[in-house]
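Example 3.2
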Amino acid sequence: MAGRFTRLEFDEDGQRGQTHEQRRALEGTPRRDAQHYAALALESHQLGHFEQALQMFTRAVREERSMVPAWVGQVQMLVQLGEYAEARLWSDKALELFRDNGELLAAKAQACCRQGDTIAGMAFSDASLRSQGTSPWRWEVRGEALLVRGESLFRTCFQKALAEPAADWFDRVIISNILLFNDRAAAALEYAQQAIALRASHPYNWLLQGRCQAAMGWNDAALTSFGRCLELTPRLDQAVRAIEALESQSAFGRLARRVGSWFRR
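Structure, written as tokens:
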């Protein structure tokens, strides 16, 4: 953990996991600015390439330490990569620089919830909502904090997130991922479908829909969704792996049924 924590701010190379286009974008002159790296990070995030997005957010921070969204992005990507303790540590580091920032407080709240520390998660979510400003992100995290505590008001929080002026199609993706992570596949599917209705050309929306369908046991529908994802972005690793996993499950199921029939003879 310490290795990545150190690299986040100080690694000058950090090109592991970058796409060809991103590597090419970083070469040559003039020097790319923080906004450029932040745009690449958002693009990677929206494709589900969390490692790449983390690296781009890190470069944005290195170029412009005052760019709070890039600090928030680093914490969000660490959470998506399952590195919850490190996400919490990095949010603390960012809050030392931007005390009481609502977006960072929400990011720390999510990291706490993913660690199972729901008391701290609610406390930091409370602080994020009390701080100046508002955003879909703060309400999305609030929804997750309530969800993991088993409180039904999480639905209201997601509705408030989507009612925010800044809310867009990707907020449906964020909510869907939160629900899917917390074993609410049917509810997650509804938001994934909303994202597709708003942005049918985006491959990750189809990938997410397929994951929801697979979690519900709708394997044929999931394969169709993954196939649509690959039509939009051929050779997308996540979709290929998802299809292979479903096909493996189907093969195992056929074998299990065959073995069972032998014992029933």
